[in-house]
Specification:
The chain has 4 helices and no strands. The protein has helices at 2-20, 24-35, 40-47, 51-70. The protein starts with a helix and ends with a helix.
């Protein structure tokens, strides 16, 4: 329905704006892990960083999402 379509477009726009606020590497880590479905080890190898860095970046990304949604 047109109402559902409008809600989906609005939600996607909000997600895009939220993602744009993240530092570049944090955004890349989040997209690879959550959108592409890569394991943290694969994300680390893809970006040439440690798994610990991936974990820290994911925490930053989720904290940002939470802050935006519930602030």
């Amino acid at each position: 329905s047109p109402e559902t379509h409008a809600l989906v477009v609005e939600a996607l726009d909000a997600v895009c704006r939220m993602m744009e606020q993240l530092p570049t590497r944090v955004r890349k880590v989040f997209v690879l892990a959550q959108v592409e479905g890569l394991a943290y080890q694969q994300v680390a190898q893809t970006l040439g960083i440690s798994v610990q860095s991936v974990q820290r970046d994911m925490v930053k990304a989720w904290q940002h999402c939470y802050a935006v949604l519930y602030a």
